[in-house]
Amino acid sequence: FLVDKGNHRHFMEKEIHEQPEVISHTLANYLDFAEGGVRAFEMPFDFGKIDRLAVSACGTAYLAGLIGKYWLERYARLPVDIDIASEFRYREMPLSKSSAALFVSQSGETADTLASLRYCRAQGVPIASIVNVRDSTIARESDGIFPTLAGPEIGVASTKAFTCQLAIFAALAARAGLQRGTLSDEEARRMVRALSEAPRYAAQALRLEGHIEKIARELSQVRHVLYLGRDTSYPLAMEGALKLKEISYIHAEGYAAGELKHGPIALIDESMPVIVIAPTDRIFEKTVSNMQEVAARGGRIILITDEAGAARASLDKFETIVMPTMPEFIAPIVYALPVQMLAYHTAVAMGTDVDQPRNLAKSVTVE
Ligand code: G6P
């Protein structure tokens, strides 16, 4: 079938804009919004009967898994091991009979992810996969799949598949919390309610595009960018850095804000912008102190936060991207959008081939 760009300049732009719709579509498969509960979708294992989950994936899918780890451990008290698939396949991790494995892949064909799956198969644990392509090899070789309903993703740098993977991890966290007895019905319902609002917040985030485009024009002039975040914003910081380097070829690193003192602070000066992802959550104040450390060294801060965060950050000189106020739980799904738009518009300002960046492939089917 034919997939076209519609009114968009690039597939990536189109795919960023499709997110409110595809996130909603994906969530509806796992959650019952009318009843406010989690659906009894098919699963190859029961979260109540396993004591560990091994997750592996590559690239952006790996970063979705990292956010999934925070959620599954926090809400379902399920220990999660997360690995880059090219490491997992060789590191000979012991898997007990009471564990399960979960793979994340847009294409379902990534060689290292598939090899990791086969390693787990040989260990005899139940295998599930979050995939966007239902008739892919990874889907076929799994005991059960959680399909993302993102539709075909053409841009090499993953966007809508990522937020749909997050949507599934969020739904899995609610399901796991119920099966493991760590969430009450009311708490799970609150999570479902929050998730039901994610598409609306994502649509609001898209309206910040004009402002983000302006910031991106400045960003296109620099050579290095540092992204910082804590908690679930930490993997998102890494995703921001990955997106930026993939499509704009600007060197970027994503760091846990608390690690600033252990290295990257040495790099801070006027020429390296620091993008801080910080919704007002339980540890917002900690991130504020990191921003003060950056500001004290002349670093330029671009803060992605909500209204309360923008007011509380009270620094002298910084740029803010002000997001709508939303439940903390869904923030990573929605905050992914400004992070993607920032990378996209920086690449457009630089004139790179956004949908087909040099040296990259959409699906890495060789090792
Ligand atoms: C490539 C793509 C990335 C993607 C990664 C994993 O590097 O450029 O966007 O995240 O592969 O692909 P998968 O299909 O397994 O999600």
UniProtKB/TrEMBL annotation:
SIS domain sequence ranges: 43-182, 215-357
Any single Gene Ontology cellular-component annotation: cytosol
Keyword annotations from UniProtKB, A to Z: Aminotransferase, Cytoplasm, Glutamine amidotransferase, Repeat, Transferase
Protein origin, superkingdom: Bacteria
Role, per record: Catalyzes the first step in hexosamine metabolism, converting fructose-6P into glucosamine-6P using glutamine as a nitrogen source.
Organism from which the protein derives: Chelativorans petroleitrophicus
Self-association and partners: Homodimer.
Single Gene Ontology BP annotation: UDP-N-acetylglucosamine metabolic process
MF GO annotations: carbohydrate derivative binding; glutamine-fructose-6-phosphate transaminase (isomerizing) activity
Cell compartments where the protein resides: Cytoplasm
Portion held of the full protein: 241 to 607 of 607
Chemical reaction(s) catalysed: D-fructose 6-phosphate + L-glutamine = D-glucosamine 6-phosphate + L-glutamate
Protein name: Glutamine--fructose-6-phosphate aminotransferase [isomerizing]
EC number: 2.6.1.16
Active site location: 362 (for fru-6p isomerization activity)
